[in-house]
Specification:
Strand content: 15-25%
Keywords: DNA-binding
Strand order of the largest sheet: 10-11-12-13-14
Largest sheet: 5 strands, mixed
Protein name: Winged helix DNA-binding domain-containing protein
Distance between the termini: 49 Å
Radius of gyration: 22 Å
Organism: Gordonia liuliyuniae
Structural class: alpha+beta
Shape: globular
GO molecular function: DNA binding
């Protein structure tokens, strides 16, 4: 079994995720987005929009300022000239995945056939006729929101009752069940609202492709290994939210076929698996802000092992108990995560608000502040904001203010 230093493992991981690929010389295009997707394999989604929706940020971290319309077109539109590249499904949580990967989730769709959550299953079980009616509405009308479906079906809400985003009425639950089972897929509008549609309208003939569970698991683990470069069984399982037993069941075949090989990584208690296409660059020079849901860091135990960086999202932590802030982005500088900043886009004032800035132990305060300031300005410009506002919170805030 080969031995890897932690430095080698970091460089392998960064290269696998596209952080050593060349930056575009001009405006990033659909071709560049394809390259990013070839690295990450998925884009996790999240509803929080205090800075930008989560699925937009990984491409920014790897390409710099790009036109978000390129990603919108790849996910939400389908034309002869620019066919759809992505579809939404449950991969690593809700995620955009390549449309060609849709059949690999057929086993999960079968598991979710009655609904993903218990209450949703209960709603569906007592509303089979409603499910049929919803299917008829969507078949005739095309992509629709639950509220639009309710309107067609003549379902009225009680006076003062909020929309289905908050109350998740029965139509919403049934739509979610049909989405989970793969009967529906969805597109999103500018407000991030799902418009449910028949899956075949979004992914085409791929709905008719059947992949058995073992083969699908083998392919998903292979994709996870490629995206990670090197990872433990737990890392591989988390990427597509597989069970570790299912990962172990296919690792033997992947090893025999030379797709992965077992290695040990300095400081890791568990063995790891190195993908055959993994590269170990001599150095990594990229510096960029990372989404809390970036595939490089979305599995927190791996982030800790790989970068010695303890990272937790504090969105659901009461404000007075937060350590670093509400929407905190790690800052990658070279081969290390050296800082974290709590960011908010004050769109009315046209300002990127840096609510806090914290530096990691042993990082060079001056060098980090100078590099981070440049990347914050780039982030602000990308989000259409004209200025930065540095709040006096965190050990890096003073140095950051001095260079901004």
């Amino acid at each position: 079994m080969d031995d890897l230093s932690i430095g080698q493992a970091r460089r392998i991981a960064l290269a696998a995720q596209g952080f050593t690929d060349p930056m575009p010389s001009g405006q990033p295009t659909r071709r560049h987005l394809r390259r990013v997707l070839g690295r990450t394999r998925l884009l996790q989604m999240d509803s929080v929009n205090i800075l930008a929706r989560a699925h937009y940020l990984p491409a920014f971290s790897r390409l710099g300022a790009y036109d978000a319309a390129v990603l919108d077109a790849a996910a939400w539109s389908d034309t002869v000239r620019t066919p759809r590249l992505l579809a939404e499904y449950w991969a690593h949580e809700a995620a955009l995945v390549p449309v060609d990967d849709w059949p690999l989730f057929g086993w999960r769709m079968d598991e979710y056939r009655g609904g993903r959550y218990r209450y949703t299953r209960e709603v569906l079980a007592r509303n089979r006729s409603l499910a049929a009616d919803i299917g008829d509405v969507v078949s005739a009308a095309g992509a629709s929101t639950p509220r639009q479906i309710e309107g067609v079906l003549g379902i009225e809400r009680a006076p003062g009752e909020k929309g289905s985003w908050w109350t998740r009425g029965e139509v919403k639950h049934v739509c979610e069940a049909l989405f989970a089972s793969g009967d529906f897929s969805a597109t999103r509008n500018e407000n991030f609202v799902r418009h449910y549609d028949l899956a075949e309208r979004i992914v085409g003939d791929r709905v008719n492709i059947t992949v058995d569970r073992a083969t699908a698991h083998r392919e998903l683990v292979s994709r996870a290994a490629s995206a990670l470069g090197v990872g433990t069984v737990a890392d591989l399982a988390d990427y597509y939210r597989l069970k570790t037993a299912d990962v172990r069941a296919v690792l033997g075949d992947l090893s025999d076929d030379g797709v992965v090989r077992k290695v040990s990584v300095q400081g890791w208690a568990e063995p790891a698996y190195l993908h055959r296409e993994a590269r170990t660059p001599r150095a990594v020079g990229r510096h960029t802000l990372l989404s809390p849901f970036d595939p490089l860091v979305f599995f927190r135990p791996r982030t800790q092992r790989l970068f010695d960086f303890h990272y937790r999202i504090e969105i659901y932590v009461p404000a007075h108990k937060r350590v670093h802030g509400y929407y905190v982005l790690p800052y990658l500088m070279g081969e290390d995560v050296v800082a974290r900043v709590d960011l908010k886009a004050d769109r009315g004032a046209g300002v990127l608000d840096v609510l806090s800035a914290h530096i990691e132990p042993d990082a060079d305060r001056g060098a980090v502040a100078a590099s981070l300031a440049a990347d914050l300005r780039a982030m602000a410009e990308w989000r259409g904001l004209h200025d930065l506002r540095i709040r006096p919170r965190g050990a890096l805030s003073e140095a950051l203010s001095a260079v901004c």
